[in-house]
Automatic annotation (TrEMBL):
Residues 5-85 form the PARP14 second RRM domain. It comes from the Eukaryota. This is PAR14 polymerase. InterPro entries: Nucleotide-bd_a/b_plait_sf, RRM_PARP14_2. Pfam families: RRM_PARP14_2, RRM_PARP14_3.
Length: 141
């Protein structure tokens, strides 16, 4: 069984001078898809010099990542792409002290916050954080 992948690609080495509209046009040029048509979204993560491109349709994300890595404009900017793996757990931070694990469970099971079935919550009280484990891959990319 191969590793499961999501419908998202991580763009790394995205410098703070690179704006989201430039990445959107780069993705459009490489994929022949349109952000305006809702084919994908781009989320900038400046803290780690990255962006996540999430495709809404059925696209070979591995093929897209390879094309982007060969693209001369991406190479000029030193931007690289890799597929985002699916995960069964996430780390939530800045959880107020004394928050019950039942609240965290219900929060993440709420459709507005992912709607995935929570199977375990491990609170890290000294870090005001928790590790939330899910029972399936829905909404956890």
């Amino acid at each position: 069984q191969g590793s499961l992948s999501s419908n998202a690609v991580v763009l790394e080495n995205v410098q703070e001078t690179v704006k989201d509209y430039m990445l959107i046009m780069l993705v459009e040029n490489i994929s022949d898809l349109s952000e305006d048509d809702g084919d994908f979204t781009v989320e900038m993560i400046p803290e780690i010099h990255a962006a996540v491109v999430t495709f809404t349709g059925n696209i070979a994300v591995g093929e897209f990542a390879e094309k982007l890595n060969r693209n001369h404009r991406a190479k000029q900017q030193n931007i690289t792409a890799r597929c985002l793996e699916l995960t069964k757990s996430v780390r939530a931070e800045n959880i107020p002290p004394g928050t019950p694990s039942d609240y965290i469970t219900v929060y993440f099971e709420n459709k507005k916050n992912g709607g995935a079935q929570v199977v375990d919550v491990q609170q890290l009280l000294d870090e005001d954080a928790a590790i939330i484990a899910f029972g399936d891959y829905k909404g956890n990319a």
